[in-house]
Design a protein that fits this description.
The complex is a heterodimer. Chain A contains 16 helices and 6 strands. Chain A has helices at about 1-15, 15-25, 35-55, 80-90, 95-125, 130-155, 160-170, 180-185, 195-225, 245-270, 280, 300-310, 325-350, 365-385, 390-395, 400-450; strands spanning about 25, 65, 75-80, 240-245, 315, 320. In chain A, a hairpin with a 2-residue loop joins β5 and β6. Chain B is α+β, with helices and mostly antiparallel strands. In chain B, the strands form 3 sheets. A 5-stranded antiparallel β-sheet of chain B has the order 2-3-4-5-10, with no helix packed on it. In chain B, β8 (about 275) and β9 (about 280-285) form a beta hairpin. In chain B, α2 runs antiparallel to α3. Classes of the chains: A mainly alpha, B alpha+beta.
């Protein structure tokens, strides 16, 4: 049976040699290598649930009056877009499950990408010959953020409107071209042309997913062509020799099992844990906003940055060159991505290590990199947590103004401190290992001498 | 019929025997591993559980008016995937040979092919005499075609005319109305809270329309001299859209104990820019880079609030290139 099927395929495509290679491709075994897979499987869930949602969502801002089954909104004027999402939530059977699963999957997707990036960074997996794979991964993260933002923005509930207003202000703040850029994208001064909804829609359901899919394909092709990196756990492993499970039969059931588990977690979250209950926010109007609004977690660093920047527009006489939102909303994320993007070359220049690396570092083995990464991470995290200052006012009764100053101080003090402490920890860990090794060697020698 | 069945069985059995013989002849590719009948049974049980949970999902779907239907959906579908995942992972650990195989990393570079590519490119260009001229012409063609392809994008919006960003629906004598179109009267405005107002007869859904109206307690008003007549009996009006990032200003800070509490202020809930309504919308705190644009007010003979002109400056978030001159109607 199998033989005959292979025969049919091979004689038509010549795929048999490729297939044997594919089946015996080696996957090194380490839990942290699964983070990228989690992201991939979350993406699959996103596409599947997203396609279902497009069958019901109406990307239109034309006015309508709600007559659905959610009583508090009945008789209220709203856009078709918002109405259709309320309908998905209440009147399409399983619609709420799919919608919430889609939203949860987006949050998990970005989280998995970020954790995967941390793994890649702290183990030095970005080094030659994998710089391209690393850059494609970063690019994916840059695409995924606006993809998620558009997803909850086109719903046209109160929160999405507030998010779009901020997005519009950030677009307007780009030096020299900001006003033109915002008018180009929105089609008219805020809240923009009616067609802006269609623009968001096509970008969210087609353009960016296609870009992400293409980048995933390129990413995986590069991974496979240079093979996986590995931690050195045994003497048989080296820069030239890879050790691990073959795709088939070892890795395949495990990976499919992981896919099922990711789907399981996402559907359980989607069914049991409420996320973005848009019927509570109400439809968006320019004149309305609400206190305590928070974006999805992966934009928390941007709202934090927007809040921490001191209040000034950069003006030359009467001419405003750089409006305030630019610093926190555009320059800050750009700076982070540029630092991450050039890091492989920066490290190469600083360490002089231009070598070819298939074996990963443990974080302690590269104290400089680990300390730098931890410092950068602490910097981003300070800004991230600053995004929840208003919640801290409500929850802990802390003064908002005092928090602003504490966070600003932490931005300056914390990264250098983290750098020094982490570097020290790495070095101490290395030293304690050396001491242990010496001890083992001495004991072995002593045993040998006695015998 | 019976003969047919017997023949079928024989054929199946024979096939299996033949295959086994063939396997024994050749060296194995996949390492041998012991059988695990117990794990096999567990996997079977898990797979059946997954099937049961999936069927449960279909049943839940079919029930009309099931309480907590979304929760049952999530439990059933998520549970089904969880059982399937557990089965697959157990399968991967116990039912397939767990091998650790070695593989050489691929060749780092292919110098011969690299050279070949270089030569192919080089030798293909030997007919060319004016290399720079050709390159320049090709660049011109590529650039121009690229630019032409981008040109229709200009239709997306009034990209070269930022003048529209200055415009608002407010003009002299326009009445202030509430959300439902009822005129706002001087007597309607109390101290210690804020009112949202819109221009009568214009869309409420533009950035230049909404106003925040407050009445400043007597003696606290501190408008600059040139705006002394912009307030009506202590009532002032500002654009409701924050000059920082465009959110609506929907918080009014009212001191409960004036001697120690900070001044009354208008606050945006997005990034907490705070503006002083008694001092021409000056920024008190937060990231906003300029004051809230103020709308001059007057009251007609019936005591209805009307605009006495347009805003003191451009409404909404600043854009690069904005000048602080007044808004346009």
């Amino acid at each position: 049976m199998i033989r005959r099927a292979i025969g049919v395929v091979d004689s038509r495509s010549g795929a048999a040699p490729f297939l044997t290679k594919l089946l015996r491709y080696v996957f090194p075994d380490h839990w942290s290598f699964l983070l990228g897979e989690v992201a991939l499987y979350a993406f699959i869930v996103l596409v599947a649930t997203g396609v279902y949602l497009t069958l019901f969502f109406e990307p239109s801002l034309s006015n309508t009056v709600y007559h659905g089954s959610y009583a508090p909104l009945r008789g209220m004027e709203m856009s078709e877009a918002y109405r259709s999402v309320v309908d998905i939530s209440f009147d399409v059977r399983a619609g709420l499950l799919i919608r919430q699963t889609h939203h949860w999957a987006a949050n998990v997707f970005v989280a998995a990408i970020v954790l995967h990036l941390l793994r890649i960074f702290f183990t030095g997996a970005f080094r030659k010959p994998r710089e391209g794979t690393y850059l494609i991964g970063l690019l994916m993260l840059m695409v995924v953020l606006p993809e998620g933002y558009l997803g909850y923005s086109m719903v046209d509930d109160l929160l999405s409107g507030m998010g779009l207003a901020i997005g519009y202000a950030v677009a307007e703040s780009v030096p020299f071209v900001g006003g033109n850029l915002a008018l180009l994208v929105w089609g008219d001064p805020y809240p923009g042309h009616a067609a802006f909804e269609s623009r968001m829609y096509i970008t969210h359901v087609f353009i960016l997913p296609a870009v992400i899919g293409t980048l995933i394909a390129a990413h995986l092709t590069l991974v496979a062509s240079r093979h996986h990196t590995q931690f050195k756990r045994t003497k048989r492993q080296s820069e030239r020799k890879l050790l691990g499970l073959p795709t088939f039969p070892g890795q395949a059931p495990r990976s499919l099992g992981l896919m099922s588990c990711v789907a399981a977690v996402l559907f359980l979250l989607g069914g049991l844990v409420q996320i973005n209950p848009i019927w509570q926010w109400g439809p968006y109007q320019v004149a309305q906003s609400t206190n305590g609004a928070q974006p999805d977690w992966y934009l928390g660093w941007l709202i934090g940055a927007l809040r921490l920047v001191p209040g000034f527009d950069l003006r030359i006489g009467d001419y405003t060159l750089v409006p305030n939102p630019f610093w926190g909303g555009a320059l800050f994320p750009l700076l982070i991505f540029v630092i991450l993007g050039i890091y492989p070359w920066l490290e190469r220049r600083l360490t002089g290590d231009r070598g070819y690396h298939n074996v990963l570092d443990r974080p302690r083995d590269a104290p400089g990199r680990t300390a730098f990464g931890a410092a950068l991470l602490s910097w981003i995290l300070v800004v991230f947590f600053a995004g929840s200052m208003d919640r801290a006012v409500v929850t802990f009764g802390l003064s908002y103004a005092a928090q602003v100053w504490i966070y600003r101080a932490a931005l300056v003090v914390l990264p250098p401190l983290v750098f020094l402490v982490v570097r020290r920890i790495c070095r101490e860990l290395q030293r304690s290992e050396e001491v242990e090794e010496d001890q083992h060697r001495a004991e072995a020698e002593a045993r040998a001498a006695r015998a | 019929m019976r003969r047919l069945l017997a023949a079928l069985l024989l054929w199946l059995g024979g096939g299996r025997r033949r295959r086994r013989e063939r396997e024994e002849e050749k060296e194995r590719i996949v390492e041998p591993a012991p059988k695990a009948p117990r794990a096999e049974l567990v996997v079977v049980a898990l797979l059946l559980c997954a099937a049961a949970a999936a069927v449960a999902f279909i049943v839940f779907y079919a029930i009309d008016g099931l309480r907590g239907q979304t929760q049952w959906f999530g439990l059933a579908l998520g549970g089904s995937f969880a059982f399937l995942g557990a089965a697959l992972i157990l399968w991967g650990r116990e039912l397939v040979p767990v091998e650790e195989i070695e593989e050489d990393y691929p060749e780092r570079e292919h110098p011969e092919e690299q050279e070949a590519v270089e030569r192919i490119v080089h030798e293909s260009g030997t007919r060319i005499t004016r290399k720079r001229l050709l390159t320049a012409a090709a660049t011109a063609a590529g650039g121009a075609i690229g630019l032409a392809a981008l040109t229709p994008a200009v239709s997306l919006g009034p990209v070269f005319d930022t003048g529209s960003l200055y415009s608002t629906p407010w003009r002299r004598n326009r009445r202030l109305v509430d959300e439902d179109g009822n005129p706002l009267r001087v007597d309607d405005i109390d101290e210690g809270t804020f009112y949202t107002a819109f221009p009568e007869g214009a869309s409420q859904d533009t950035i230049g329309a909404p106003l925040v109206v407050v009445r400043i307690p007597a003696g606290e008003m501190a408008l600059p001299a040139d705006r002394a007549d912009w307030a009506v009996e202590g009532i002032v009006a500002y654009s409701k859209v924050c000059t920082h990032a465009g959110c609506a200003i929907s918080l009014y800070r009212k001191p409960l104990f004036p001697p120690t509490a900070p001044r009354p202020a208008l606050v945006c809930p997005c990034h907490y820019s705070t503006f002083d309504p008694a001092r021409a919308g000056k920024v008190l705190f937060g990231p906003a880079g300029r004051a809230l644009p103020q709308l001059p007010l007057r009251a007609d003979r019936r005591g209805v609030l009307r605009a006495a002109g347009n805003f003191s400056g451009p409404v909404g978030p600043s854009w690069s290139g904005v000048r602080r001159k007044g808004a346009r109607s």
